[in-house]
Amino acid sequence: MNQGLSSIMTIRFSSITAPLRTSLLPLVAALVLAGCASTAEVATNITAPAQFKEQSVNTDAAAAPVQAAGDWWRAFHDPSLDALVERAAASNTSIQQAAARLAQARALARTVDSDRSVQVGVGAGASRQAGLDRNQGNKPSTLLNAGASISYEVDLFGKLAGASNAATLDAQSRESLLQSARLLVQAETAQTYLSLRALDAERGLVREQVEAYGDTLRLTERRVRAGDLAELDMARVQTELSATESEAIALDRQRALLEHALAVLTGDIASNFELPSAEWSTALPNIPAGVPSTVLERRPDVIAAQKSVQAAQARVGVAQTAWFPSISLTGGGGSASPDLSDLFKWSARSWGIGALLSLPILDGGRREAGVQGASAQLDGALASYREQVLIAFREVEDQLASLRLLREQSAVQALAVASAQRATVLSDSRYRNGYVSQLDLLDARRSELRNRRQALQVKSAQYQATVGLIRALGGGWGVATAVGAL
């Protein structure tokens, strides 16, 4: 509160007689609230660390070049991915809806701001009446009029400016939400595409195993016909072959669903969309060590929540101005005449000006309720902002932890794959020479397939976590210009 204004009002108020003091109490309270109204920043009770916790255990020293907050997907060096993201940016319906909401918010901001301008209008009319004038009798008469009017509300206490500022901040929040929608669609497109490419690689691996089982089945059939093996051995191989073919079909189904999801993301009809299978050659960018937590200041959803807090704060000030008097200036001029030929003569002119001051004294608590409602809205916006910041930190830490652990898992899984492949080669050789049973060979092949598929899934998870981290950081990990303190 403005202490100077408060003390002045206390001194003056004490010199007024008791009855008059009671009648002027609402006006005095309004002026005191004027001293309390402030645009100071609202505390969010969030202390942001200088660095993410998971970065302290990240040992990567080099980083692939990544756009700070732009075409981040180009760091994966995949032309197909680039084309899909660009299609999604142009045709995705979620982005189009967010853009329409932004256009509505901007139009509303212009509407609210127009109340601060001079309002000018013109009008004309004609009427014919009888019996309404005592001196006129029952004789009908015609009255024609034409004129212009002008009005202006004097914004002494900032009511209109505050409402305009709040609407502008709402539009800025919508603009940030549009950017958030774009980033979300970009990330979903990239993750869906990378999942599809991972499935292509896994399908190729499973098909390779199907061919291997087919070769084993043909060899087993020859040995059964020669009497070297029992029919049970052939049934076991046939079982493995059929089970692996079933897994391959299941992967085909998953790929079809991902392809359809890509169609929706790019704004296309699933029946018309097709992405041919291709070798998975997408590059995996490295994450640099020491990414500062300040990059979260450029996250669009965090910026949107921040703008919502500022808009709610502005509306508290607008609600407080309801205690103040409103002053309106009006003016009008024109002419009126019973004959159209005389309507624009100087003798038919008319004009008027006026000023209106209004201050509600008793309103049943309406204004106080308005202030309380605006304050509650501010509290809700603050809580939403804090929640958004907390979620942002959690998402970054989740992805950093995932990348660190996936990197360790990938190294261990690579050893498991190498051992499983060696075991399969040895088992196949020993089986062909009669040193081990068919069950040993089948177990070795199952182990190899399982470990190679697990390695592909770990690799896919690394790509997903990388895209997730880029999205959590707001579209990259370069330091952007600070928008506001967390």
From TrEMBL:
Belongs to the outer membrane factor (OMF) (TC 1.B.17) family. The keyword Coiled coil applies. Its main location: membrane. It comes from the Bacteria. Residues 1-42 form the signal peptide. It comes from Ottowia thiooxydans. The keyword Coiled coil applies. Keywords: Coiled coil, Lipoprotein, Membrane, Palmitate, Signal, Transmembrane, Transmembrane beta strand. InterPro entries: MdtP/NodT-like, OMP_efflux. This is Multidrug efflux system outer membrane protein. Transmembrane segments: none annotated. Residues 439-466 form a coiled coil. It is a lipid-anchor. It is found in: Cell membrane.
